[in-house]
Design a protein that fits this description.
three-stranded antiparallel β-sheet; 2 domains; alpha+beta
Amino acid sequence: MGFVSNAIKKIAFWNYARTSWQWDVLCVLILVFIFLTPKSWFANTSYRQQVPPVAHTVVILNAEDFGSQPLKSAIERRAKEEANRPDAREITIEDVYEGGKIKRYKVDIR
């Protein structure tokens, strides 16, 4: 029994010399564990259940519908209507140029 407990103690405290075959075996076992362990073993399912998924919508609006100097609020309002998401909070507006002029607005709603 002394041999087994001594070997376990050496493994637990990593007490083998660096040039020994035992050191090599332990390193190979660690690499096998790292590369062959399924990702699902480390998945935090409780976190995923608490955080609702983020709905992501992209709306393309014609710039001609807003005139030459549109208000950001008007673009946001129209994008919310088009996406049927009046409760959307995070909105990013990107101008789409063609021929040096704004032709469309790409509105990202989250």
